[in-house]
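Re: the 123-residue chain
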Amino acid sequence: QVQLVESGGGLVQAGGSLRLSCAASGLIFGSRAMGWFRQAPGKERVFVSAITWSGVTFYADSVKGRFTISRDNAKNTVYLQMNSLRPENTAVYYCAAFTGGTYYASTKSYAYWGQGTQVTVSS
């Protein structure tokens, strides 16, 4: 009975910041790695960032140094702080719970997904 709900998306100018939140309900949150993915129109869903149960983080090269993932297991929440946003970062951002697999960057390693939150970065 896992449910993931993203929030914090919206419209922002290039160079601005947004903080996404993913509130999870369910028994598995504290023991699972969590990931953020994004999907732009006409494009495949791609990896953005992930964080393990112990706090080890992973980032796509395109966001490294600009985005920061964190989690609060007590609150069953994972965050994505996005700074220095660019128009090419415009996409629907999805939160997901890792359920098994070798690669944190693969969508196939995640069985639970939120509905997504729209992030639009204007020039």
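The first strand starts at residue 3 and ends at 7.
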